[in-house]
Write a structure and sequence with these properties.
The structure holds 2 protein chains of 2 kinds. Chain A is mainly beta. Chain A has strands at about 5, 10-15, 20, 25, 30-40, 45-50, 55-60, 60-65, 75, 85-95, 100-105, 110-115. In chain A, a hairpin with a 5-residue loop joins strand 5 and strand 6 (about 45-50). Chain A is globular and about 45 Å long. In chain B, strands 2, 4, 5, 6, 9, 10 and 11 form a 7-stranded mixed sheet that branches. Chain B has a 4-stranded antiparallel sheet with strand order 1-3-8-7, with no helix packed on it. Classes of the chains: A mainly beta, B mainly beta. The interface of A and B includes residues 44, 46, 99, 103 and 107 of A.
Chain lengths: ~120, ~120
């Protein structure tokens, strides 16, 4: 079946540091890949997405490249801010082979803490 | 951008009470809505998928009679936790998507349910 593996957190960085959150996936088909961010007490917000190999998703200084050869979709940001502190979820959307339905499969989430 | 409104944001009630959570798409037609459950510091677990005008499809292990889902219109889905007990306490999040399967899901802000 499909699965998403993220690096465990928390990740603690100082402001303006470089961020990488690793994400690898296993999928039976040709998934779309997403990064979602969850601020405390809130739902998830779509941060960026990529729908095919070599696509680069980017938003608010974050970016991630769909690497089919390494089945990865690592999230990066050149200079983090305190306001980036949140939980980040990597996810894939693929058609379930048993049900035929397209659904999201989430990683376990990585908590980022940025200190001033 | 697409907005999903979830209400209420927090519910505290006594054991045995039934609780209804509403999920509305404000500026698009949500052909499909999803209900997730999230335990503290864990990822989202899909509970059920609902399509407007038809019965919800529940994931394995989710009790249909416990978690009643009604997707009566293209902008509203409701989740009713019937006869709630303390073990039902959790963070419930809905998401919505329009008719195009490749489009990302848009999430509500979640409902924190606490059963005393």
């Amino acid at each position: 079946g499909n699965s998403v593996t993220q690096m465990e957190g928390p990740v603690t960085l100082s402001e303006e540091a470089f961020l990488t959150i690793n994400c690898t996936y296993t999928a039976t088909g040709y998934p779309s890949l997403f990064w979602y961010v969850q601020y405390p007490g809130e739902g998830l917000q779509l941060l960026l997405k990529a729908t095919k190999a070599d696509d680069k998703g980017s938003n608010k200084g974050f970016e991630a490249t769909y690497r089919k050869e390494t089945t990865s979709f690592h999230l990066e940001k050149g200079s983090v801010q305190v306001s980036d502190s949140a939980v980040y979820f990597c996810a894939l959307s693929d058609r379930n082979v048993d049900t035929g339905r397209r659904a999201l499969t989430f990683g376990s989430g990585t908590r980022l803490q940025v200190q001033p | 951008g697409a907005v999903v409104s979830q209400h209420p944001s927090r519910v505290i009630c006594k054991s045995g009470t039934s609780v209804k959570i509403e999920c509305r798409s404000l500026d698009f037609q949500a052909t499909t809505m999803f209900w997730y459950r999230q335990f503290p510091k864990q990822s989202l677990m899909l509970m059920a998928t609902s399509n407007e005008g038809s019965k919800a499809t529940y994931e394995q292990g989710v009790e249909k009679d416990k978690f009643l889902i009604n997707h009566a219109s293209l902008t509203l889905s409701t989740l009713t936790v019937t006869s709630a007990h303390p073990e039902d306490s959790s963070f419930y999040i809905c998401s919505a998507r329009d008719g195009i399967e490749d489009q990302p899901q848009h999430f509500g802000d979640g409902t924190r349910l606490s059963i005393l």
